Structure formats: C-alpha cells, structure tokens
Amino acid sequence: MLIYIIGTTLLVFGFYIWLRKNDDYWKKKGVNFLAPRLFVGNMGEMILMKKSIGAIVTEFYKNAQGLPYLGIFNMRQPVLLLRDTSVIRNVLVSEFNKFRDNGIELSEEADPILAKNPFFLKGDRWKIVRAQLTPLLTNAKIKAMFPLVQDVCKNMVNYLEREPDANEEHGLEAKELALKFTSDNVASCAFGLEEHSFNDPNAEFRKMAEQFLKPTWFGYISFFITTLFPSLIKMLKIPNSQRHISDKFKEILTKTVKYRKNNNIRRNDYLDSLIELKSKPMPYEYTDDYMVAHAFTFFLDGSETSAIILSFALFEIAADFSIENKLKNEIDEMLIKYNGVITFEAVQEMTYLDAIFSETLRKYPPLMVMTRECTEEAKLVAPDNPGQEFKIEKGCHIYIPVLGMHHDPQYYPDPETFDPDRFTENAKHALPKNCFFGFGDGPRTCLGRRFANMQIKLGIISIVRNFEIRVNYKTKVPVEIATDFFLLGARGGLWLNFYKRKNETTSN
Ligand code: HEM
C-alpha cells in the first residue's frame, strides 16, 4: 500500500515537474512573454470555450503593441506570436524553406484520408502533392466549372422564392443557406454528383460537410492529447473525431469512380483529373487513398470556408442599403453590357463586388490564426525594432494573428466598420503591405482561392440580383464570434430575410 502511495505521489510530482518544465522557455531566450498557467498555458479561456482562438490571440496581439513578437504558451507548448509585418513576410515568403510546415500532427495510419490534405502534409511530400494539385485549379479549370455553379445558383434562387421563411418573421440562417450552396457546387464541380441540398434536408454531401467540422467531445479530448503529447497521436494511432465521415466519403467516391470507369464516362472535371494522375509517373505510389484524399481536400476545404465568407458578405450587404444598391447597379451594368447574361468575364470586371469580397475576408477571416512550424533554425530580424533579433529553434511553433491584424486600426482605420471602399482600385494600392491574410501568403497560400472567389461571387450576384436582403431581428448585432468552433462563426447565427425584387424574373 505504502509503495502504491509513494509511487503515485512520485508520478504526480513528475508530471507536475514536466508540465512546468517549459515555463521559463521564453525568459531564457530573452523574449517578452506571457506567464503561463499550469496545464492550460495562456489558452485557458479557449480550452474552457469562453473565447474563440481568434479572440484570445487578438487580445494578446493588441496588448503587445510595440513588440515585434511575443512568447506565449499553448498549454505547455511554447509558441511565438508574430506582430511585425516584415518578420511575418520573412516567415511566410522570403524564408519559407525554414518555416515550411503548419505544425499540426495527424496519424496517417489512423487518418489515411485527412492526413494527405496539403494543409497537414509536411516537407517534401507537401511540395510534391501541392505541385500536383495546383494545375487542377487554374483559371481555365475554374472557368470550365462556371456553368455548373450557375446551375446551383438557379436552384438557390428557386429555393428562396418558394421557402416561406425567407420573407417571413422566422427568416433563414445565412450560413446554413450558404453551406447548401457550396456543398452542392463542390459535389457538382469536383465529382459530377448532382446534389439536392435545396430540396432534400438530408442531402448527403451537405450533411457530411456540416458534421465534419462540428465540435465533439472526442475532438476536444484529442486536442489535449495532440497539444500535450504530439507524438502520442502517431504512436497510438489516434484518428480525428470524424473519421467515419472520411470513410463514408471514400465509399461514395469509390462507387463514383467505378461507375465512370465501367460506363466510360468523362466529365473533364476535378475527379477526372485525379483519375488521370494514376496514369502519370509519380514520385510516390499513387494509391486509391491518395485519389480519395485529394478529392476529400476539395470537398472539405471547398465548402465550409466559402460558406462562411458568403454568409458574412450577405449579412453586411443586408445591413447597409447603400452597399446593396451600389452592388445592384454594378450587376445591372454588367447585364446590359453582356446582353442579360452574367458571364465569367462579367464577374472579373465587377470591381465593387471584388471590393465587397476582400472587405469580407478582412473583417471575417475564416482562419483567424495561421500557424507555422520552424523546420530549420533561423534568425528573425525586425527592421523596425533594432536590437530585437532572435534565433528561433527548429520545432518552435508560430502563430500569425490574422484576425488581430485585420482589425488593427494602424492598418485598417475604423476596423469594425464594413467599408468595401478600402479595396476599390485606387484605395487598395495605398493599403499597407503584408497585413492581409484572407487566403494566407507565400508558397502555402490557399490552393482553392480561385474556386472560392468564383463560387462566392456568383452566389452573391444571384441573390442580390433577385432579392432585397434584410437582417432579421434574430441576428445578434454587433456579431459575436462563436466560441466552440476553430473557424470564424457568428454566435446565434446570421438570420436574414429575402424579398423578391419585383422587376426580376428568376435568374442566376
Ligand atoms: C473563402 C474561402 C476560403 C478561404 C478564406 C481560405 C483560406 C485559406 C487559408 C487562410 C489557408 C492557409 C494559407 C496559409 O497557410 O498561408 C488555406 C489553405 C488551403 N486552402 Fe483555402 N480557403 C478558402 C477556400 C478554399 C477552397 C475552395 C479550397 C479547395 C478547393 C481550399 C483549399 C485549401 C488548401 C488545400 C489549403 C492548404 C494549402 C497548403 O498548405 O499548401 N481553400 N485556405
């Protein structure tokens, strides 16, 4: 019994010492830092779900004004929070080779599909996969997908016309609406599957997209394990909490590929390109898992983030009649110029729509904090802060406070105001450099930004052309950031009303 008590005491004491071991990490390096609390480090409010990661990191960012960087702790893991724009530029772009990875651990054995998403891949494998996927999302490929998205726009407009809640007291939740739209687009453009999210409440793709990123207890617990013991994820082969969804996706995709092969069907879409990769020489064995993984990347990354931006853009348009009016006028001008049809070229010419798109990405960046891992020792030099050079060690984690910088009045005056005029042709050249990260920056910048740009803009056009939008009384204004989600979300949702314009026939 005594041995048992002594053993347990030693174990608890050893664990305590281990938890505290890194506490003076930043002090020893001579970096300004926030003192960590036991177990949670500086992320206690996020762990207790009182604040989102974006809100906490923004707070640290604001409080460290004047510093080029700040040492913090994610539980016991030291993290360098960057503030200086030229240091950020070096990390993301100029010295990218020393900061190549995103620093997120997944077990490839437990998660064979998700772990092959470029976002999680590391080193040379990331480089190879990125180079293979980039040609599948060029401007020409996106243009070929344009008519498919237009078809989904028609379904969305029809839905808004017949759905009684759209123009009645109850209203519609914009993110739900947008997720129906984006998941149908992805199903159609990437896999040639006609989804019916606007007719069927159980449409498979939308349900999977919705469920995959939903917080779960298992996900919560594995967050602790990943952060405290990153290597355990691989050793114990712990899968992500929604592994069953990637398995389900694999089942659907395998059937689709088989059907195409057996019936000799070619659609010249993303899936065809992935099938074609099989016949090309590869620097690695291109197994079926790779094909499914690349498709899953499009599915996962293509729906959620775009739905966030589309829903916030609709909310801001609904909240300001002058913005809505100006945009409607721009749409009307294009309709006159292009004989009543919104073409790919017409969308490229819409500068005010583009400004709304950029301002939405500024005010509501879905990825509120970007991460990097130092993969080779490097010197961080901040020209505006002479004498504050710092040698960063291999393995050190980095946070880039996207939300904080996008809301910093030093870069964007009156940052809480939604003002598309910041991004009009003349104004955007005067914007400060290296403080806009809606799609990230450098070689790891968002792979799907062209597709996102096209589907979101078409979604906005089809709605504003056909409906006047108003904010429903259920929306909390000013918007509060949801605390249970790692991407940016609105607490309580964005509820809107859609009133059919009198002089418009149904059109995309
Ligand atoms: C408005 C919608 C979107 C936003 C705001 C967004 C934002 C981002 C951001 C901030 C990153 C990290 C970039 C970095 O670390 O420098 C990223 C990475 C990525 N995005 Fe997107 N994204 C969007 C849509 C899409 C779409 C539609 C796809 C796919 C079709 C996609 C695929 C990816 C991939 C694969 C990566 C990882 C790139 C890499 O690490 O090499 N994204 N995205």
TrEMBL record:
User: What is one GO cellular-component annotation here?
Assistant: endoplasmic reticulum membrane
Q: What is the membrane topology listed in the Swiss-Prot or TrEMBL record?
A: Peripheral membrane protein
Q: Known Pfam families for this protein?
A: p450 (PF00067)
Does the keyword field hold Heme? Answer: yes
What cofactor does this chain's UniProt record say it requires? Answer: heme
> Per its UniProt record, what SUPFAM superfamilies does this chain match?
Cytochrome P450
Task: Tell where it localizes.
Answer: Endoplasmic reticulum membrane; Microsome membrane
GO molecular function per UniProt: heme binding; iron ion binding; monooxygenase activity; oxidoreductase activity, acting on paired donors, with incorporation or reduction of molecular oxygen
Q: What does this protein do?
A: May be involved in the metabolism of insect hormones and in the breakdown of synthetic insecticides.
Tell me the protein family, please: Belongs to the cytochrome P450 family.
Q: What is this protein called?
A: Cytochrome P450
